[in-house]
Amino acid sequence: MNAAKRVLSPSKVENLPAQGKRYKKQIDLDTQTPPQPQEQENYDFLLDDDEDFDVSALDAAVSANPRLELSGWQRCVVRHVERLPKTHDLLLELSGEEEEAGKAVCHLQAPWNQTPIQTGDLLSLQAHWQPTLAAYAINKEHGYCVIHPDLLISSTSVTGSLFCRRKAVLQDRFRGVDSANAVMIIGTLVHELLQTVLAQRLRRKPQIEDALQGMLHSAQLAQQLYAAQLSRAEIELQLHKFVEPIVAFIAQYLEGESPAVQLPETFAGRIEQIQDIEENLWVPQMGLKGKVDVSVRVRNKKHPIPLELKTGRASFSMEHKGQLLLYQLMHSALGQETRSGLLLYLREGIMREVREGRNEQRDLILLRNELAHYLTRDAQLPATGQESVSLSLPEQPGKLLQPFELPEPISHHSACGNCAYATLCCSFASTDPQLELSESHPLRRLMPQVLSHLGQPDNEYVLHWCGLLALEEQQARQSHQLRSLWTETPARRQQQGRAIHQLELPTGHKARFQDGRFEHKLVLSAQADKDFNLNLSGFELGEYVTVSCTSRLAIAAGYITRLETRSLCVQLERDLGQRYTDESFIVDKHESQSFASFNYTNLALLLEASEKSAELRSIVVARTPPKQHKVVPRIIGSKGGPMLRPLNKVQQLAALRALTTSTHLLIKGLPGTGKTQTLVAIVRLLHLMERSVLITAQTHSAVDNLLLRLLPHNLPMLRLGNSARIHPQLLAISEAELTSNCETVDQLTQVLHKPSIVGVTCLGAGHALFQQRHFDYCIVDEATQVLQPTVLRALSHCTRFILVGDPEQLPPLVRSREARQRGADETLFQRLDCEEATAVLTLQYRMNRSITRLANELTYGQALQCASKQVENARLQLELISNSNSAWVQRALQTHLEQAVLLLDTSDCSQRCLDYAAASKQLGQTGDSIEQHYGEDRIVPTTARSRRPPKYTNYCEAAIVMHLLHQLLAAGYDARRIGVIAPYRAQVELLRQLGKDLNGVEFNTVDQYQGRDKNLIIYSCTKTGSSTDSAERSREAEILEDQRRLTVAITRAKHKLILLGDVSCLQRYTPFQRLFKHIPDRCRLHLADGRMGFSWQTLLDELNHAKRGD
DNA sequence: GCTCTGCTAAGAGGA
Ligand SMILES: Nc1ncnc2c1ncn2[C@@H]1O[C@H](COP(=O)(O)OP(=O)(O)O)[C@@H](O)[C@H]1O
To answer: Where is the DNA2/NAM7 helicase helicase domain (predicted)?
Structure first.
């Protein structure tokens, strides 16, 4: 009863179910409070009534018709929208995110009534009760309505859009098209200097000069200068000019000395305390984020106020003031009511107070909504279904269907002419059927200039990919990774493996400052679950995370540098000790949006007027095939022998073509044909020719795989990228290691520019090094797993490129089903594949002749050939102890070459799996929890689920696998030569748990096995039974319908491949059906009770024993 | 939504 009473105590009123999901903090508004809803009074009555009330009656009362409270920030869902005829107000009927949380009606009056809102939209509102309407209202004077509140837009994007909305929208997507100039770098450094001075409480000029010197000679600055291609000398003088103004600022505002002249309008108060520096704000109430330069306490203000530093001309423009107004709103929404801010123009030594202003703040939020609208619009795509999907519009020649709507361009001759986004802006403008520019619009003059080098196919290629990327972005937004930070409790996030909560700083903790970052140790608190182990929390070393405390989201971000059972270390960009010593912290995984913008930016790169971009367009867009020089460089003839010798004829030919191609070469490496071997030779030969080589791939492991094979050859190599992701044996050539002693730009340049062979992931090719270094060759390994836009960056830094891969194996990961269906998984390899461009490696060193034959029949025609008799005839080396095994096991593990492929048919075992799960409680639970974790039905209650057959696990197959494995190991077969694969993660986890004592056997998904092999492979196909619902079947089928996955699965085994599954079920999937046609009866074994000593009961009993054994 | 890789950020200033 006590508990119930506490929940209802007035101070915890937000815990009332009637309030719905509210923001944690509320602000006190001067606005008139609405009358308490009727039900609320009932509670009071109940409360007064005392200890003995009935909680369920209370719940019933609440769900009757509670009113949703909108006078504080409230998330709500639009249930109905209507435009009122006379007033043109938008009338919204709202409910909480869960409908039972309550309802409310709100009028959006001018200027909010133009907001694009639809039924079903999620809004974040703060409204004003209007008795005359008997409803809430948001109007000119009161309230805010925020659309798409889970999209946090940065304050500078909002203020930036004051000048040109179109640019702001482009900038948000194509981040990084405009590179920072010297003035901006100086600006950044002056910020750092002032922040250092304030953090360290430096007061006197000599101290400040020392701080500047320290900064100028830091390794961190060298990195920044290297990236900006500036020398220390170039910036030193500029920075010095700011020392005097900083001294004056400190004297007046921190020391309280009167200035020589006090200009009118300047801030006359005093800063009493520096509260925070670079405070990070994420405010989902307003859909905004931002970083406050400095938060300061001043006299007569209850809460700290933001201070914004500018190093340019003192314009007092709305762009600058707007930043402060937004920070004020954000602080207020977080419960620190803030009505003022300080705008400091350091160069001119002027600081003014910027006070709150309803009109400006309202308009900024309206502007923010406008940006949110453009950034979340569903991509517009051509109808699919016809032969060729084209963006061209028959009625409007020259125009193309635009994937996303953009704001209209401003009309400003000089600004448009100098805008970094001009090409992009014009490319969209020139093809946009909706856009009508006036005769005198500056873009009309600009367009022919900035677009003269582009043809319509170029525009079309870029727009096509923009559309596909937009679909991926949409998908990412919907998967609500980010929003869970404010919509789910920390405990729930921890459960899902996304977060670790109940962390604290150890007493007396001091952050260690290193390389411009603060290393913190966080320890699980005494309240945390005693059995919780951080090593099993789903977090990894090197992972990028945010740190929140219970009252504030994302106060810092950084990398995990250490993980122990009960503690972890994170390198953050700020020191938590300053302000948050006694807080309880939550660490969350952070998936940034940077992939999307990396890809968009690469498309923009393709449109540039540079020679390199023209070359890329001619290859990538126009698909111009390469020319082959006939003459091999002399040095290869004289010294290339040792490098070519380890290659077979086909590999040698590919290598020589790589050296002599005019622009590019594709190497199609069928399974086991020695791709890496060939690449090693190519890199060594190129090195012999004194050519520089950039080695790249989508994944770290693929990059490292090649570098590791090159390591013994003592070539000059550098590996760029996050050290935590790099193979330990390559750390010696990692960027971090090689540059660890560099303190100057020259030293950095020395180290980074010397090695002629550089390895980096495709996304890592955004590294600053590539602004300065161009490479002769780019080698893209596993090129059939990289999205087209992703690979462009690396290619743009090299003269020639070689793509290596196998389009018959698994494609790149595309999350959006629609993007996939529209061809987002078509890689550059496929696009450029043609006879002139492609060398095929056909001699394989992996599979014996039976397995090779099957692979040819399913996928490779007759292309795949065994490289030698030895490969062709390699058999499983196994001697079973004959009498201790039943006949079916003997048969299944036959070593005869003609039995190298075996299909074990379980028939429909769905009911058996179900019965087994029900009977064996313990195992049933294991499977249940695995299905729950990896399967799709995350929200189905356990009781309902266990009555249905599991979809992604199969006990019967697991039992057979375990039995076979035990027999193999008992016969002395080397566990490390055995691989067990399955299409689903859930089945893999089940197998792993059951086989955890079988050391050495590798269990993994087919996807993860790409590129690997084993002597013996068992493929547990998992799917069984007959699914009646055809719609469901087609939706689920994608994994099994993909022939590329099946191709990978059957080409992993060297000596023996055991396919295990329900043949009649699998036959419904086209690739399996085709495969089975080529498996003769003598290679099939039907498993049924009593046949060849087979017994389900025995096998399933064994599972129980195995389980009990631990 | 089964398979599941990548990576710092918001703001540096100026029409
Ligand atoms: N030319 C060759 N001669 C002999 N063996 C080879 C040759 N090329 C490749 N192999 C064998 O094939 C195996 C796989 O080669 P690798 O280059 O790692 O293949 P991939 O990169 O295609 O997976 C190697 O272990 C090697 O023994």
So the answer is: 647-742, 749-816
Within 7 Å of a protein beta carbon, the nucleotides of strand B are: 1-15
Distance from CA(A816) to C1'(B1), angstroms, rounded: 9
Residues constituting chain A: 1110
Burial of A259 (0-12, 13-18, 19+ CB in 10 A): middle
Identify the architecture of domain A622-841 in CATH.
3-Layer(aba) Sandwich (3.40)
Q: Closest residue to B6 by CA to C1' distance?
A: A763
Domain boundaries, chain A: 74-147, 151-173+274-376, 180-262, 413-432+441-478, 481-594, 622-841, 872-923+947-1025+1037-1106
- Taking CB atoms within 8 Å and a gap of at least 24, the contacts of A43-48 are A43/A8, A43/A16, A46/A8, A47/A5, A47/A8, A47/A9
Read off the pTM: 0.90
Taking a C-beta distance cutoff of 8 angstroms, is the pair A68, A74 a contact?
A: yes
**Would A622-841 and A872-923+947-1025+1037-1106 be classified into the same CATH topology?**
yes
The structure tokens listed for A738 are: 């090689």
pLDDT on residue A67:
86
User: A151-173+274-376, what's its fold?
Assistant: Lambda Exonuclease; Chain A (3.90.320)
Query: What's the pLDDT at A99?
Result: 80
CB A296 within 8 A of CB A304: yes
Superfamily of domain A872-923+947-1025+1037-1106: P-loop containing nucleotide triphosphate hydrolases (3.40.50.300)
Fold of A481-594: Elongation Factor Tu (Ef-tu); domain 3 (2.40.30)
Give yes or no for CB of A277 within 7 Å of strand B: no
The lowest-confidence range among A789-803, A872-886, A935-949 is A935-949
Give nearest nucleotide to A591 (CA–C1').
B7
Contact, A425 vs A411, CB < 8 A? no
C-alpha of residue A677 to centroid of ligand 1, in Å? 5
Q: Tell me the C-alpha distance between A591 and A416, whole Å.
A: 34
| Residue A550 backbone dihedrals phi, psi, to 5 degrees | -60, -25
What's the pLDDT score for residue A63? 47
The residue nearest atom 13 of ligand 1, judged by CA position, is A674
Q: State how far the Cα of A268 lies from the Cα of A263, in Å rounded to an integer.
A: 9
Exposed/middle/buried for A685, CB within 10 Å: 0-12, 13-18, 19+?
buried
Q: Which CATH class is domain A74-147?
A: mainly beta
Can you give the C-alpha Rg of chain A in angstroms? 33
Rounded distance between C-alpha atoms, residue A683 and residue A35, angstroms: 77
Identify the residue whose Cα has the smallest distance to the C1' of B4: A813
What pLDDT is attached to residue A17? 31
Residues 511-540 on chain A lying near strand B, CB distance under 7 A: 516
Per residue in A552-587, pLDDT (tens digit) is 999 999 999 999 999 999 999 888 887 888 899 999
* Cβ–ligand 1 contact at A677 (below 6 Å): yes
Strand B closer than 7 A to residue A311 Cβ: yes
Nearest C-alpha neighbor of A790 from the set A605, A1044, A544: A605
